[in-house]
# Entry
Amino acid sequence: MMAGEGATRFARAWGVPEINLLTERSRMAWMAWKQSLRDAEGNNNWTDGLDAPAPTAKQAAALRQIWPEASDEMIAWAFEMAHFPTTGTINCLALNAKGEMSGTTTTSGMAWKIPGRVGDSPIIGAGVFVDQEIGAAGSTGRGEENIRVVGAHAIVENMRHGMEPKDACLDVLKRIAKSYRNDPAKLSKFDINFYALRKDGVHAGASLWSGRVQRGYMAGFQYAVNDGTGDSRLEKCVWLLERKA
Ligand code: GLY
# Structure
């Protein structure tokens, strides 16, 4: 696996064009998010931080100094993004009519990542794993937790030993919870989801927490299925812990 400067140099050497994918809108959302950062004493040397998605006049003015032409709508969008940073990793598992299986997981959709962070997605065995004789599995959510249990591989091994896809996923979620002594306060700080597709087409999704409505849609807790018989549909994940609020 290659990452960071070495990967960039390798890509350049092979003629891959360098493109800046950062839009001004995204840069504004990042700047708005930076306003929310605090040191250990709770100080922020810019403005008062983000306590609500709507910007205060002072916060909006700080962004207008950099983007004098920005519309109110764009500033409001930037604060919404900063308040609810996007995630958006996608795991996709497939079984074709010949019985061949495949799987992929996009690199992280996590916003404001530390430069150089790789996450779990590209790590075979963590973000995704396929065994043509057994099935496939993958993950979304906080990758650091998944890497520690090598989740996708563990799920496929669970299925190899006879567990149903749903139970295979839940078992790995239980391992993660156990590493926090099953402490709900600590576990409430993150989300993680697993998906499994067995060789015979049986599938499951499992989340650490039951779903919650975020910005008008159900975050986590659902996964999309297309079994080749018609339109895609959403199915519910099983979950390990019930979210109280
Ligand atoms: N699961 C995606 C990531 O943590 O980067």
In short: The chain has two domains: 9-83, 90-241. The mean pLDDT is 89. Residues 1 and 7 are 9 Å apart (CA to CA). The radius of gyration is 21 Å.
